[in-house]
From TrEMBL:
This is PIGH acetylglucosaminyltransferase. Belongs to the PIGH family. One of its GO terms (molecular function) is transferase activity. The lineage of its organism: Eukaryota, Metazoa, Chordata, Craniata, Vertebrata. GO terms for biological process: GPI anchor biosynthetic process.
Amino acid sequence: AMEERPYRSASGAALALRRRQHSASCRELAVCCPRLQLRSLSAATSAVWLAAYGLFVLSENSVVLSAAIFITLFGLIIYLHFVKIDQESLLVIGSLGIQVTSSYASGKESTTFIEMSRVKDVVINEAIHMQKVIYYLCILLQDPGDPQGVSEVVPLFQSSKPRLDCLIEVYKSCQEILAQRKTAPQSS
């Protein structure tokens, strides 16, 4: 069963946290951003095209119009395919690892898989950004050479930037699965 709860991002935008429990040691947590509003998109496009038309009237150079149309379409394709993320999700599988997926507005997905043996911990960090404290969730990777050390920090939900209350929910879910791993007998 999937449960969904409303939250907000650090900037105040509406987000939704979807949680799905596949089994005792497998959970999926997804932060969904608001979909791209067609209204704001057409407003931006119209503004660029009107400005271009104004320049065309003044300069009587049709290249200006073609360039404006080309730039807006090209910009839109880049934005949908590489910038606008609709959903960021974690699939936490106790015995295997953590899969981090970003789903773009164009339908493209980018996925990273981190083996559980490399996961040292999942923590909430705080950072100061323009006189504001922002919180972010990250996976600490085990340093192969030093059992106490951390070799890398993998930040999560970098696009949606959920607020602390949402991060705590995700953190608790991850910790429950990580705790099972510590109590489970190690298979050789």
